[in-house]
Structure formats: structure tokens, C-alpha cells
Amino acid sequence: MGIHQNITSIHLDVLKEIGNIGAAHAATALSSLLNKKIDMKVPKVEMVSFNDMMDLAGGPDNVVTAIYLRIEGDVSGSMFFILPIEQSNAFIRNLIQDPTFDFEKPPLSEIGISAMQELGNILSGSYLSALSDFTRLKIYPTVPALTVDMVGAIISFGLVELSQVSDYVIVIDTAIHEEDVPGSEDVRGHFFLLPDPESFDSIFKSLGVTLP
User: Fold this and answer.
1) Residues 74, 158, 1, CA angle at the centre, nearest 5°?
2) What is the value of pTM for the model shown?
3) pLDDT tens across 29-44, in order?
4) Sign of torsion, CA 189 190 191 196?
């Protein structure tokens, strides 16, 4: 596909840098929310096909926690933040101080759901704000929806309203680390950014590349 062939490692490096700026903002907000020192990094940004996107999230049958939202403004599209269930549980238990909270054992407490949505708000808002500042495009996230389901079902749901989608997805790896805790493991998730076809052009034009 033309779009994919015209995007080079330089453009992905720029998106990674934007991701790290967003991650720094998100880390500050999370540190305040958790009252702990949180560090966030974007180790990698890449473009992958839909099939590879499913594999990155553990395969279509893998059950995960997902935050889904639409992007509106000068750029439109869909955005997912997908976390493995065990990492979501650890994060929310830590946040709400409830060791029994479990996304796989409904009914879920309202406070746990709200905490996960707030995480989605902070992460997506920080990243999209950095993207907006850098590209000078107006980009607004809708209110995030929280879903616990199989990867294939989640992604299909997010794409239902799109009559036409591109073949490629921008993947932004995210690593959240609690500092000052020896041996603590990173919480690793993936942002999947799926701009609507015409929005690919807007984003990459603003980064200095014209797509066919």
C-alpha cells in the first residue's frame, strides 16, 4: 500500500518522540494520582497490519482490558489502549487499594471501572495533546469506553462504524514503571492508533511527508 511504503523510520522516530513527550505528561499526572513516582517511556513505534496488531495483543482469542475512544477534529480515527488482564488488575488494585479486584470476576466495582477509565483518559489525553501540539492539528478524544473481552472482538467493535479503513495501524508501545520500588516490573501496554484513511494524509503532511 502506498501510505505504508512512503513512511520511513524517520517519521516513526518523530512519532516516537511525540509519544515520549506525551508519556512524560502522563507520568506526571499518574504520579499525582497514585502519589508515587511513575516513569513512562515509549520504547517503540511501528506500523503494522491488522493481523500483526492482533498478534501484538496476544492473538484474537486473548482476553484483555481495552480502553477505546474515537478521535475527532482535524484528524479522525479510532484509538485503543490494550493491557493484559494481569497487568490491569495489578495496576487497579494498587490504585484503589483493593487486593481482591479482578477484571475477570464481575460484577466489577464502580471505583475500579472509574480508575481504569481515568487511566485511559490520562494516557490518551497526554498522547493526543502532544500529537496536537507537534502537528498543530486540532485533535480531540471522545470519552473512553472500557471493555474486557477477546482482542478480536474488541478491535472488530471499534471498526464497525468505519465503512473504509486503511490496512495499517500505528502501534505505540508504552512502558509504565513505578520508581523507587526495587524489582518492580514495568506495566506494558500498546496504543493502537487507527486514523481514518484521509487522516493519515493530514498527520504525515504535518510531519513533512506527502502521501500519494
Assistant:
1) 65
2) 0.83
3) 888 887 888 889 998 9
4) negative
